[in-house]
Automatic annotation (TrEMBL):
Coiled coil: none annotated. It comes from the Bacteria. The lineage of its organism: Bacteria, Bacillati, Bacillota, Clostridia, Eubacteriales. Residues 6-120 form the Response regulatory domain. Pfam families: ANTAR. May play the central regulatory role in sporulation. It may be an element of the effector pathway responsible for the activation of sporulation genes in response to nutritional stress. Spo0A may act in concert with spo0H (a sigma factor) to control the expression of some genes that are critical to the sporulation process. InterPro entries: ANTAR, CheY-like_superfamily, Sig_transdc_resp-reg_antiterm, Sig_transdc_resp-reg_receiver, WH-like_DNA-bd_sf. One of its GO terms (molecular function) is RNA binding. This is Stage 0 sporulation protein A homolog.
């Protein structure tokens, strides 16, 4: 299961990224690459959509906290930010807001690997749950959700997967089913 779990690393140097990569590879994780530039890391995340991004606070161009905020804000993937105690003070205000996970340096390999395992298990459970939910829908329900998706794509200039995630997130936030929310979107935009 973890071999299909793709990870991208952001580090200040290739050597620092290589140490993280080596630790992950020893435990069977698949590392897609290492980026030392925050801007390059963001672009690579947008194109490859890894399940997890692990990055240091210090990068060559912008700090890891800004990169994490963008990746989490766009809901591209989960992010683990490695930072010092002082850097963590800057991250606290929006850590929970954007769903960022932080680990303070110096990292202990056993705790780090446990956190990566925990995140990979959480993501895997969510993927299985989403597949079961999608299998349980009949064709008519899927058509209604697709129609609502199309409305959101036009109205907010979203990609198809972004529109789907918006319906999914809004349904969770409002404690209602995706089908009920889709029907509401359609009725409000006639």
């Amino acid at each position: 299961m973890i071999t299909n779990f793709r990870i991208l690393i952001g580090a200040s140097t290739l050597k620092a990224g290589g140490q993280i990569k080596s630790l992950l590879l020893q435990k069977g994780f698949n590392v897609d690459g290492i980026c030392t530039s925050g801007n390059l890391l963001i672009r690579k995340c947008r194109t490859t959509k890894p399940q997890l991004v692990i990055l240091n606070y210090d990068l060559s161009d912008i700090n890891g906290a800004e990169v994490a905020k963008i990746i989490c804000g766009e809901k591209i993937s989960k992010v683990i930010l490695l930072c010092t105690m002082q850097q963590y003070g800057f991250v606290i205000p929006w850590e929970k807001k954007v769903g960022l996970l932080c680990m303070q340096k110096p990292i202990k390999p056993s705790e780090f690997i446990k956190l990566v395992y925990d995140v990979s298990n959480e993501i895997s459970k969510n993927l299985v749950s989403n597949k079961q939910i999608n299998r349980g829908r009949n064709i008519e329900d899927k058509k209604i959700i697709d129609k609502a998706k199309q409305i959101l794509m036009v109205k907010y200039n979203l990609l198809e997967d972004e529109a789907y995630r918006k319906i999914q997130k809004d349904s969770m936030d409002n404690k209602t089913s995706m089908l009920q929310l889709a029907k509401k979107i359609i009725s409000e935009n006639k």
